[in-house]
Write a structure and sequence with these properties.
This protein is α/β, with parallel strands linked by helices. Among the domains are: 165 residues, Rossmann fold; 37 residues, no CATH class. The protein contains seven helices and nine strands. The strands form two sheets. The protein has a seven-stranded mixed β-sheet. Helix 4 links the parallel strand 4 and strand 5. Helix 1 runs antiparallel to helix 2 and helix 2 packs parallel to helix 3. The longest helix is centred in the first third of the chain and has 29 residues. The two termini are 35 Å apart. Bound molecules: S-adenosylmethionine. The site of S-adenosylmethionine (SAM) has 19 residues, from strand 2.
Length: 291
């Protein structure tokens, strides 16, 4: 996994730098934020790259841990046939490849991301329109909270149509305290309505709350300083900084975003550091037996 992680990260960074050179202003990068219910514009390639530079490592390791846990449980009665709803760039598909030797992976997203990490190509489309045939693993990789109610309702109706008898649902949430509202419950209830259901819940949480850095247990993890320095100083190196009132004053108006800005968020400088630890690992794994 080390080589894959290192080469992928470098590839994302090279692409990001290329796009950055073409951007006269960087204001749109402020959208790479989840504060106050905001979400990035996933259609924007520079935003995708910035998102990945921040989260790719953490999510790769978290999804890997989730699939490992599923494999250790020995629960499925067939090879894993994974459907990833809101797969983005297929990070969870890449993680699956390091755990399972025999599996299938179908990633579905309404946006076709510029970078793709899974072995099998993505399907572009709305998750709510997906009708499984015999998938037995449904994954929501940081996506469920962002799906509109109508899409969740459709998933609750459609996913139980799979012919699989032993099914796993993996819900990877953004943060431990980040609730998906009723979305996951609705989907579990969809299975309960379709047939009698047994749930076993497993969870992935930070391994060590006191010292959760990845380099504690991945000795090779060494996030390149150049990437950290580049994304931490995006505001300072922005070509339009001299013309931007935000560049000189926390009070200056932001022409685009009101209180959330590239330089400052309220009175606090915007934080663009990558995630180096598992402090936000928060995955719930449900096993459904309808044999
Ligand atoms: C936070 S991103 C997660 C991306 C990726 N799974 C990851 O781990 O980085 C949420 C993803 O959900 C996708 N999404 C949102 N609504 C969707 C829908 N109705 N159907 C399919 N994908 C959707 C977005 O396009 C985005 O790629």
């Amino acid at each position: 996994m080390e080589n894959f992680w290192r080469e992928s990260l470098q590839g994302i960074f090279e692409n990001f730098k290329l796009n950055l050179r073409l951007m006269p202003t960087r204001c749109e990068l402020c959208d790479v934020s989840f504060m106050n219910g905001r979400t990035p514009n996933y259609e924007s390639i520079p935003q995708q790259h910035l998102y990945l530079l921040r989260y790719f490592s953490a999510y790769l390791f978290e999804y890997h841990a989730a699939y490992q846990q599923l494999q250790t449980a020995g629960f499925l009665d067939d090879t894993p046939r994974i459907a990833s709803l809101g797969c983005g760039s297929g990070i969870d598909g890449a993680a699956a490849d390091f755990v399972f030797t025999d599996y299938t992976y179908r990633g579905i997203d309404r946006v076709r991301w510029n970078m793709w990490f899974a072995a099998e190509p993505p399907c572009t489309g709305d998750a709510g329109a997906y009708i499984p045939i015999k998938d037995n693993v449904f994954v929501f990789p940081k996506s469920l909270a962002e799906l509109p109610v109508g899409v969740v309702d459709a998933l609750a109706c459609n996913l139980p149509r799979t012919s699989a008898k032993k099914i796993c649902i993996i819900n990877s949430r953004r943060k431990a305290d980040d609730l998906d509202g009723e979305a996951c419950t609705k989907i579990l209830q969809g299975f309960a309505l379709a047939s009698p259901t047994t749930h076993t819940i497993m969870q992935i949480r930070p391994r060590n709350a006191d010292a959760p850095g990845f380099n504690n247990y991945l000795r090779w993890f060494n996030y390149p300083n150049e990437i950290t320095a580049t994304i931490s100083s995006l505001a300072q190196t922005c070509p339009s900084r001299a013309q931007c009132p935000q560049g000189v004053s926390t009070e200056g108006p932001c022409f685009r975003l009101g209180s959330n800005k590239l330089c400052w968020n309220g009175n606090v400088p915007m934080q663009w550091s990558p995630v180096f630890s598992d402090c936000n690992f928060s995955t719930d794994i449900y096993l459904i037996d309808r044999t």
